[in-house]
Amino acid sequence: MAFTAALDIGGTSLVAGLVRRDFVVQRRLERPAPAAADEVISASIALLGEVIGDDSIDAIGIGSPGTIHPIDGLVVASDSKPEYEGAAIGPRIGDHFNVPYAVTNDVNAAGVGELAHGAAQGFSRVLVVSIGTGIGGALLINGRIEEGLHGTAGEIGHLLVGAHGVHPCGCGRSDHLEAVASGPAIEARYAAETGEQALSLAALAARAEDDDLIAARVIDDAATWLGRAVAGVGNALDIDLLLLTGGVSGIGPRYTDRVAQAFHGEVMKPLREVPVLLGALRGDAPLIGAATYVRARLGID
Ligand SMILES: [Zn+2]
Q1: What is the CA(27)–ligand 1 centre distance, in A?
Q2: pLDDT averaged over the chain?
Q3: If you measure from the C-alpha of residue 133 to the centroid of ligand 1, how many angstroms do you get, rounded to a whole number?
Q4: CATH numbers and ranges of domains, the chain
Q5: Residue 165 pLDDT > 70, yes or no?
Q6: Cα 230 to averaged position of ligand 1 atoms, centre (Å)
Q7: How far apart are CA 185 and CA 133, in angstroms?
Q8: CA dihedral sign of residues 75, 151, 32, 199
Q9: How far is the CA of 278 from the centre of ligand 1 (A)?
Q10: Could you tell me the distance, in angstroms and rounded to a whole number, from the CA of residue 95 to the centre of ligand 1?
Q11: CB of 154 closer than 8 Å to CB of 120
């Protein structure tokens, strides 16, 4: 039986998977992601080769950071990873394995997965917010991913959340949502307030549960900024679901409850019953979504 191979290029790791026709992930391998685009492509080819093994594949679906050209699979632009711009991620990987491929933004891939097989099924206007190393978003309208004219539809990471000029963002500007509410931003704020360096987000979340008031406040603030900022986008797009995905969204109910509380406190009245859900596919969402995306693009049953 032919599988579809899937690749999720994240901010800190590369994940390759072999996805069955019923969109179950059969095998999955994860490695730290190198920094340079060329090395990412070589490492991706090696990892995909390993996960495919002796099995046959019909296509490769790829979720990549940055804004992706929907036809040729090139990274058109990346504010947070300018070294990726122009990288021929799709063509080089597709040519190496000699199979058809499609590339979409990594958060778009997660959104496609959740829409087809996860928590967004049955909703018609969904804002997907991915909180991890960075903050990204995707927009699912009437059962399909809305990629937009330039490929930035749903990108909420660079919303302005303050005007103090004190939170430098990975994109080179400042005071954006990503600069105050991403995983590294939460860790950095805790380190700045306590002098304790290099505490992981998981450890920080455990401390918050254990009555570490600074850990609790740092997490609550990040969740609140996110919920409030996203509420404005929710109003503008008139959504019927806010879906949270990415590593930070999984650190515990305290975080998701605070996001939901802030979102519901900030949205306009008609949206106060809009559910705030966690993605159901968790870490496999980008793989399942990338496989779904490429199969739909190529018309593979
Ligand atoms: Zn930014």
Answers
A1: 35
A2: 93
A3: 13
A4: 3-110+283-298 (3.30.420.40), 122-279 (3.30.420.40)
A5: no
A6: 15
A7: 9
A8: positive
A9: 24
A10: 33
A11: no
